[in-house]
Design a protein that fits this description.
- Two copies of one chain form a homodimer.
- With 458 residues, chain A is of the alpha/beta class.
- The first copy, chain A, has two domains: 2-61 and 371-427, Urease, subunit C, domain 1 (Roll); 64-363, TIM Barrel, CATH 3.20.20.140.
- The first copy, chain A, has 17 helices and 17 strands.
- In chain A, strands 1, 2, 3, 4, 5, 14, 15, 16 and 17 form a nine-stranded mixed sheet that branches.
- At the A-B interface, helix 3, helix 10, helix 13, helix 16 and helix 17 of A face helix 3, helix 10, helix 13, helix 16 and helix 17 of B.
């Protein structure tokens, strides 16, 4: 008797370029691992399960990977739209004045939002990550946590636009200590479900010395480096002012472009710069939704992929996107890139669903554990109701519409069940590990207080 | 005693450019009309209601207007993505081979999908509209129906790409008769909830004589003309081949550009052509989702609006979009146009939410009845749960995040209650007028048969 088997599903294993569809598919799991994948007939011949889930009319696929998210920022969702100088003038006052307790509350809201839209892996880049880590322990999702290191004083929004930021050595050293403590205390916790990376907020937001120190530490701890790169003309302007050269050539000079680097955004990177990153083995996280709203730009992810790079998708942050939902990012990645290329054949549904699963997992170094349904991998998967009107009907031939509809019509609420590390964390759309109503109410209360404080500062 | 009052809402009346927000707002209705709008305190001082709905923590706003939709096409949702020659090579075989019974079943699925995403007005352009009209009678939504007139044989997909289509006079005359019959039989039915317009499928898809005949009939019946205009290079190519000039100048020559015209798409219109339409008083329906997926193009809606035109939003069709959800169109309109302009300040949330409501109603000639919450208008409204994690928290100052979050994070499933013409047609997300499960199952069965037939043809 094994623990659980899901049968009669449209099973998307993500083991090939067409989604690895198995009709009348089944997956068997024991503990936190997948033990077998195949047709229902095959698996029923070999296994009996204590719990059998009939997924007729449903898709079962790997849980979605949100490869770049700032969960605390959910607390000020939607405060900075349709504007120029988003970071400094829109988000700055909130970002600079949120308390650690408020950040943890905001993070919890965002984790619930993600789970309800099928996200099972959160690559979170935030502070105070040592406290946010407790949210992840409780939520039961897979988390790849980075404690943001920067040297920025909380008064950034008071600077003139384009002025060189002051970099405060005391601040960056304090934040580095927090990042190292997080690594020491949390990496590998919860049976490996929680892992830690290193992360300078951006090449413009810490000193050169700090970038170099982090590189050494990341090598020592064998972790990846999660960093915003070429995230805006603002950043490139700062780097040119300090070092006389654009971000990506400068990072190449100081030895930062390699397989250890997860480069976020590349908003203002030239196509050749994106290709250079790919050639050096760095991965890229594409956040089309937030960069579309914040900057009206489609980053050069196609140039990056064409050069052979590995890219995932990220929902980034709620004051910019304004949702943290990988279904949104799949459609955005596909359509924004069609618009950029003026060509409907680029960035197909089949390509972006891989970015949301196995490619995203690979980009953050977790493809040995998650992102596809294969024996030996962790049991991270979602069950999607294809009888929701917007995903109906299912057509199999002459063309199969399952993946096109998940990408172009899926909105997240069709996800019924979420399993992470072998544990059901959502069932019948009820989150089992956190109290959704309480999480939402606490966030409302905290946001009202934060907004009142910010209002008095402006 | 009046019939119903909703109290304690974030009320978006849409009576000004900021959404007409009334904090702690209330709306009173009797029969199919709104009788009063104001604060809860004001309304409670003047009215007592048989039914009182407490909308604390919820938005109440006008129902959404889907100003261009082909509902029958839901039956082959998602069969033609990521390709060139979408109409002829992707959709053609399905479009040409669907039976009338199947079309009605597909339409029902799409209506349920729309209701569940807050659409209360459907401007449907389809065949067989005399039968689809029964769906609208039953569903209880407001419908503006157009029976598509074309002269196209069902073998369109067998032509070479770029070949001049044969226009069949017998077909166009038959379809014109259906359109006139629809008008005679259905215009003004259900106490005015169902109305009818005239609609050539496109300037390339009927003869010049038919366009002129329809213009006269529309004048006679005092209806608008709902027509695809400049919907693709395919169409412009056909018009140039037939008449030696591009679509919009040609329509101007034959007197088609005036307030009677609702021009759909304008995909391939030049900015100056879009401005000409606006100057002539024609309205425009912008369908960013479908045109983004199908063509990788952002139509010139900004040029049209800058010239003073009135524009609404449409979800178009499920094999192209692949969803029929005006929340999707709001975010798409905002972000695609930011990307096109490389400017995050254009097409604000405040502008697109008006296009989804009052401007859309005006574009299809229904703004005297729907699109805003004002005494004397029909009671068409939706109640949205702002405690869904992706719409939380609500912040009122220093910046109000309600409309930015509805537009950039709303996905449709947050709509709890739908009221049309004073009648509740959805409550607690259960559609009350149609049996959702039955509608979905019938569509699945019919789609399987249609797809099997199409497979044998290819």
């Amino acid at each position: 008797m094994i623990q659980r088997m899901i049968i009669h599903a449209y099973l998307l294993t993500m083991t090939d370029d067409q989604g690895g569809l198995i009709m009348d598919g089944a997956v068997a799991m024991e503990g936190n691992e997948i033990v077998a994948v195949g047709t229902t007939e095959q698996l029923q011949a070999n296994y009996q399960a204590k719990e059998e889930i009939d997924a007729r009319g449903k898709v079962v696929m790997p849980g979605l990977v949100d490869a770049h998210i700032h969960t605390s920022m959910a607390l000020y969702r939607g405060v900075a739209q349709d504007m120029h100088h988003w970071l400094q003038k829109g988000v700055g006052p909130f970002f600079g004045n949120i308390t650690t307790a408020e950040a943890v509350i905001g993070s919890r809201l965002n984790i619930v939002e993600g789970i309800k839209a099928g996200t099972t892996t959160f690559s979170d880049f935030d502070n105070p990550m040592n406290l946010i880590a407790e949210n992840y322990r409780q939520a039961g999702v897979r988390a790849r946590m980075t404690s943001t290191v920067n040297a920025l004083p909380p008064t950034l929004h008071k600077l003139g636009v384009g002025e060189l930021y002051p970099l405060d050595e005391g601040i960056e050293q304090t934040k580095l200590k927090e990042a190292v403590t997080l690594l020491e205390e949390w990496h590998g916790k919860e049976n490996g479900r929680l892992t830690v990376m290193m992360g300078p907020q951006g090449p413009d937001m810490v000193s050169k010395e700090m970038l170099q120190e982090i590189k050494k530490l990341a090598q020592h701890y064998k972790t990846k480096i999660h960093m915003h790169v070429a995230q805006g003309d603002r950043e490139i302007n700062q780097v040119i002012k300090r070092y006389g050269v654009r971000t990506i050539p400068w990072l190449d000079e100081i030895g930062y472009l390699d397989q250890q680097l997860i480069a976020i955004h590349l908003t203002e990177a030239y196509d050749e710069e994106a290709a250079l990153l790919a050639n050096r083995g760095a991965s890229m996280i594409h956040c089309p939704g937030s960069i579309g709203v914040i900057d009206g730009i489609v980053p050069p992810v196609m140039a990056f992929l064409d050069a052979g790079g590995t890219a995932g998708l990220g929902s980034d942050n709620a004051p910019g996107n304004n949702c943290n939902n990988i279904f949104n990012e799949m459609k955005a990645a596909a359509v924004y890139n069609k618009i950029k290329a003026k060509d409907p054949t680029v960035m197909t549904a089949y390509k972006v669903i891989r970015m949301a699963t196995i490619e995203g997992a690979k980009a953050i170094g977790l493809d040995h554990e998650t992102g596809s349904l294969e024996p030996g991998k962790k049991a991270d998967m979602i069950i999607i109701n294809m009888k929701e009107p917007n995903l109906s009907p299912v057509i199999l031939k002459p063309v199969c519409n399952i993946i096109p509809n998940l990408v172009y019509s899926g909105r997240g609420h069709e996800v019924e069940t979420v399993i992470v590390d072998g544990r059901k964390i959502m069932e019948h759309r009820k989150v089992l590990t956190l109290n959704e109503e309480k999480v939402v109410n606490e966030a409302q209360e905290a946001a009202t207080k934060l907004a009142e404080r910010v209002a008095t500062l402006l």
